[in-house]
Amino acid sequence: MAKTIVITGASDGIGAAAARRLHRDGHRVVVVGRSPEKTAAVATELGTDAHLADFARLDDVRALATALDEAYPRIDVLANNAGGIFGDPTKTVDGHEKTFQVNHLAPFLLTNLLLDKLIAARATVLQTSSVAARAFGRLDLDDLEHDRDFTPERAYGTAKLANILFTRELHRRFGEQGLAAAAFHPGVVATGFASESTSPMRHFYRSPIGRAFMTGSERGADQLVWLAESTPGTDWTPGAYYEKRRPAKRVNPQALDDALATALWDRSAALLT
User: Which SUPFAM superfamilies does the record match to this protein (predicted)?
Assistant: First the structure.
């Protein structure tokens, strides 16, 4: 059955690759991106709708939610794929550290603004997380934005850890109402990831040696496409974090903390009021 699938961060990389595959499979794909030129190019190629939003501006996220709610009678899949690792600590116009806002607060807000529509459709909500959650993530509720110990890697890893905890809590709160959620690591993908960062990861992603160990965007999109098209509860377990189409065997211990997941949800909601 064809689905209406909204993909953020779909103007490039695995988001664009997933949009192309899902479109070929007959789904109605809604392309969301930050760059007007890149977003329009992907949408024109696929003959589908495009919406613009910069997740470093929460008013853009609110406007996006309104536009999506008005344009589509139902949304079957919301893929929160937009994100990235950035450079020195930078506050957005909303007063939050950019890495934390773009990777966690913005998709948290978008999902919550669309929650009634998603529940009505018994939709799937996907979070593009990262193995960086295990390698670098350390979530402190009293310093979510790493004001005391910021590094680009630590901020990114913590935001990706927040994606997993958000998924866990989304399932706990709304799973019985038919909403399904999953987070996943797409692999180390050869894209423009880290291009805006001062992190050493930028040099790794640009180096021939680094590229030799990476996979392409098509392969990186595989889990997003699989989770979007398959049946939650049958093909995969809602609330879980996936690597290579399987629940991850090794995770950050904080990712399994239900109390922390609940507390992060409440703290995130408070930051948005």
Answer: NAD(P)-binding Rossmann-fold domains
